[in-house]
Amino acid sequence: MTVMNLDKLEVWARGKDFALAVYKEVVPHLPVDEKWNLISQLKRAAQSIPANIAEGHGRFHFLDNVRFCYYARGSLTEVQSHISLAYELGYLPKEIYERMTTYAESLGKQLNNYIAYLKRSKHGEKEFPAGYTLREESEPYTIEEFPDNTQPH
Questions:
Q1: What distance lies between CA 23 and its chain's CA centroid?
Q2: Angle between helices 40-58 and 10-21 (to 10 degrees)
Q3: Phi/psi at 150 (nearest 5 deg)?
Q4: How far apart are CA 27 and CA 66, in angstroms?
Q5: Domain range annotation of the chain
Q6: Per residue of the chain (153 residues), what is the pLDDT tens digit?
Q7: DSSP-assigned letter for residue 129
Q8: CATH: 3.40.50.2300, 3.40.1490.10, 1.20.1440.60, 3.40.50.300. Which one for 7-121?
Q9: What contacts 14, CB < 8 A, 6 or more positions away?
Q10: Coil, strand, or helix at residue 1?
Q11: According to the model, what pLDDT value does residue 2 have?
Q12: DSSP 137
């Protein structure tokens, strides 16, 4: 896969659709006085899900990809936490809370399956820098000593 066909990566597309659902279905129910608190946090976490999947996908090494998928999974859990709080504060109708919770759980399972696939496939395992380290040998630092009457001018 390449960056050019990111839209063919189903887990990314579903993550993006989930973020859109947060914006369209959840955010409008939140009060204006939550604009800089709950709304801001919710939007950032929702955006972070597909963004991290995309960033990992663009790294072309399975370990980097897995790491960014872990970040996406953490952001998904953060969104779930914010949605739960919004529901318990009485901002969200039960039907939206339940639909978004079900959506998040399904996306989480898909993300876990994608992580498992990446670990099995080890795509990019032989690419630099995996398994390699870059070291530069330093030159020893020496001080030249001059005989008394041959000092540089």
A1: 19
A2: 170
A3: -120, 20
A4: 29
A5: 7-121
A6: 445 688 889 999 999 999 999 999 999 999 999 989 999 999 999 999 999 999 999 887 888 999 999 999 999 999 999 999 999 999 999 999 999 999 999 999 999 999 999 998 887 666 655 454 545 566 666 666 766 666 555
A7: T
A8: 1.20.1440.60
A9: 107, 110
A10: coil
A11: 47
A12: P
Query: Which pLDDT score, from 0 to 100, does residue 122 have?
Result: 83
56 by Cβ neighbours in 10 Å (0-12 / 13-18 / 19+) ranks as buried
- Cβ partners under 8 Å of residue 152, min gap 6: 146
The one-letter amino acid code at 35 reads: K
Spatial separation of the C-alpha atoms in residues 89 and 137, rounded to whole Å: 60
Q: Please tell me the pTM assigned to this model.
A: 0.78
Position 4, amino acid: M
What does 57-118 look like in DSSP terms, one character per residue? HHT-SHHHHHHHHHHHHHHHHHHHHHHHHHHHTT-S-HHHHHHHHHHHHHHHHHHHHHHHHH
Nearest to 104 by CA among 36, 6, 26, 34: 26
Do the Cβ atoms of 100 and 26 come closer than 8 Å?
Answer: yes
